[in-house]
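Quick one - first record:
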Amino acid sequence: MATTVSMTNILANSGKGWFPATRGNCTWQLSSITPGDGAASSIKIIPSGAGEVTLTSASHAMVASHKYYVTFKIRFEAAVTGTCDWYWPVAEPCAAKNMAFNAAAGAWTRLSAVFDRTSFADGSYPCRFDYNNNDGGNKTFWFTSCMLIDLTASFGAGKEPSKEWMDKHVTSFSDSQEVQYVENLSELFTNIANAIRAKSGQTGEIMACDFADRIRAL
């Protein structure tokens, strides 16, 4: 059986999708424009000039050895190519650097990363979202669906899923949610065998020793 794993959004803000922040090089306005993923609202962010645009949160408890997952969505008024960074603590090197996007006008883009902060000490630190304003166009954008999840606390040390697994299985926004997670070899082998049968159209038992050959034959 898959294990049900509960995850808490460290930046929870009554389901709004954004977090109270100190703003750098920008102003913001509350907006009802959302990606339809459960976030109740968004923040419309207007850059004040050239250079990075930042949103700095309150301090949150961080365990340096833990792995964390951060995800958020952005939407620009005009097409733009650029990058965003995520800091926690607000010090170099940043937690997630140069999360790249190539966004069409009016389209929501999801960015995410998995990271740890082993170069820092356990403690309480603010987070910071950076839009690097790479093209210098100072384009207005919207920000929401932000989640920061302690993977180690949720799944256990050594069992933390990858960014790709989280992106696939965490498809909606919530201040807290549950996912189904396979954490034992028996269920893993069963799922692999089912996938081979579905792809190949074959039926019957597949022994673990045959998995590699059967996959190569697909």
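second record:
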Amino acid sequence: RRSSCRNRLLTIMQTNSIPYTFNRHGYYYFTRRVPKDLAHHYSRLRIVECLRTTSARQAKLQAQQAAAKLEAYWASLRVAHTSLPGADYFVTQPSTAVFFDANKDSTGQPDLLQALELYLHLKGKNRPKSFEAAASRTCNYLIGIAGNKCLGDYTRADALKFREWLVNRGLTGSSVTRNFSYLKAVFNFAVSEYALDVRNPFIGVYHDRQAGVTKRQPIPMQNIKRVQAKCRQIDDDMRWLVALLSDTGLRLAEGAGLLKTDIHLDCEVPFVRIQKHPWRGLKTRSSERNVPLVGQALWAAERALHASCGSAFAFARYNQTDTTAANSASAALNKWLKQHVPTGCTMHSFRHSMRDRLRAVQCPADIADQIGGWAADGVGQGYGSGYPIDVTYDWVRQAIA
């Protein structure tokens, strides 16, 4: 009922002058209803995406491009019988994989959608949903530009056109690199699996990797102390989360998705257990760890653990649905935080600050990696269970002193 009411509201709000858009609070949104024959691939019947512009002219251009890409994706869906296009718009679980069979295909090569299906089936196991969404989104971008072709039919011209499209879309150099990385990975994996004599035209495409990239700045110590004092003064669940991150260096999603049972205070060394949950995955394998609770992080954990909110979550505000609302947490907390920190600093800057604080007390790099859940280099780093909690506790205690 809620979904139908929302769809009716969007239809009413949809602008007449710009097809497939509506305006909310001055910003334009793109919206399309999912075709009935493809509805079984989706968990919702309408796609909605903010165009991030208040300009009617820009909104019209972006909406036309988005509509064209969706039509191409849906055409590919109908031909290839997969649920991959639109993965970044509420796509449900993929259908049973149907892989390329060279004996039944006159071209002797898989197309990009078949290569993507194979890649996700074999490489996507036990990976976060973001892995599938990012690979699918990148391939869908290329399909919208150059079509869904056999791998050997893609040319350098397609690669250059793809680069120009990404740059014109306003992506930073690092985002362009990331899109090419996913595309090259899908392409190379299929070429290797099927032993194809095909050259990857997306290798070696030049672009400015530093374009639009701004280095995240750590939060100065005096600002951290000021923020922590404000957290204790306001003393609510949002500030508990800020304080928790300020003296642990946790990622925002790691903290927001905690269960109360992940917080262990009745120990000689109090700590928080960072582990994978169905509602919140982890970025890397090394992200699973025990992080000692010291200083304001210990205060925040105690407040969150003993809060009588009737929820198993430490921060129930951000766990009202099947997934932790890390983006909502980021938007709300950054809006508050920017009043108390230098320009350019965000919630993620606490991680940068923690690394600097560990460096300042000459903490060994492998111990710092374990505390922050950073991926460690070298085969030897993967052996054993890591440092005991009392060792990491001593270094964190020194770092925050």
